[in-house]
Specification:
The chain is an alpha/beta fold and 270 residues long. 37% of the residues lie in helices and 26% in strands. Strands 7-8-9-3-10-11 form a 6-stranded mixed sheet, sandwiched between helices. The protein has a 5-stranded antiparallel sheet with strand order 2-1-4-5-6, with helices on one face. Helix 3 packs parallel to helix 5 and helix 4 packs across helix 5. The longest helix is centred in the last third of the chain and has 16 residues. It starts with a strand and ends with a helix.
């Protein structure tokens, strides 16, 4: 199992955002996470990629332990909540760094360096993180640009590109580090419908290459088409999961049915 997460809990102030999420992702599997806004989908991805620290639970990626939960002694007498007796403990910095190298994350708003050319955006992390020399890094960058049908844009800057092109560059930058698992956080939400197609085509290609991916998306048709497994989240919980046929065609949970019905109605009206 490439990714194993067990009973992940996360809250901001007093708001519980993740209420005990458990999931597994196998090598070569594409998992789509769907659900209403505010259901915890993006927070889950941020926790799995170390951008947020969990309050409790256990996460293991690539056979390496990222974080686990331990019991602590109460500091005071009186009424003590169970959550006060546990805390998350992260692995040492080397292990966390090694896990980071196994993981790629593509943001919804591209997050390219505006003052770097397209080529340098893809080369920079290769040189700084993987310690590749400039010749090797440039060769890999050009191969990825060709794969994205952007081999003629290496000298351009992000501001000179369309949103769809910028997102393809962001995907190329993530792939340049050879991640074992690639996370997408609403990769098409900042794009218009025409540009969305460009990104979905790239992700379909990666799926055919058996790239392990976890994709948070509002594109239901895409999720149904490309995912091996679909997870529906609501209220910080996994409400339902299964194959696309099971979730979209034979949903058991009433909340799932209501969400998909509203999506279907909105799609028809559009």
């Amino acid at each position: 199992m490439l990714l194993k997460a067990d009973n992940i809990k996360k809250k901001f102030d007093k708001d519980n955002v993740l209420n005990g999420i458990s999931l597994e992702v196998r090598e070569g599997e594409v998992v789509a996470i769907i659900g209403p806004s505010g259901s915890g989908k993006s927070t889950l991805l941020r926790c799995l990629t170390q951008l947020e620290r969990i309050d409790s639970g256990r996460i293991e990626i690539g056979g390496k332990l990222m974080v686990d939960t331990v019991k602590v002694k109460p500091k005071a007498s009186g009424v003590i909540q169970e959550e006060d007796l546990i805390r998350s403990v992260y692995s040492d910095s080397k292990t966390l760094h090694d896990i980071t190298l196994d993981v790629g994350l593509v943001f919804q708003n591209f997050n390219l360096f505006p003052h770097y050319s397209v080529l340098k955006n893809i080369m920079d992390a290769q040189i700084k993180v993987l310690k590749r020399n400039k010749v090797e890094a440039e060769c890999i960058a050009m191969e990825l640009l060709e794969k994205m049908n952007l081999d003629d844009r290496g000298d351009a800057y992000p501001c000179e590109l369309s949103g769809g092109q910028q997102q393809r560059i962001a995907i190329a930058r993530a792939l340049a580090l050879n991640p074992r698992i690639l996370f997408f956080d609403e990769p098409t939400s900042a794009l218009d419908p025409e540009l969305t197609g460009e990104i979905l085509k790239v992700i379909r290609g990666l799926a055919k290459e058996k790239m392990t991916m976890v994709i948070v998306t509002h594109e239901m048709t895409f999720a149904k088409e490309v995912a091996d497994r679909v997870i529906f989240m609501d209220g910080g919980l996994i409400i339902e999961e299964g194959t696309p046929e099971e979730v979209f065609g034979k949903a058991v949970n009433q909340r799932t049915k209501e969400f998909l019905q509203r999506y279907s109605e909105g799609y028809s009206e559009g």
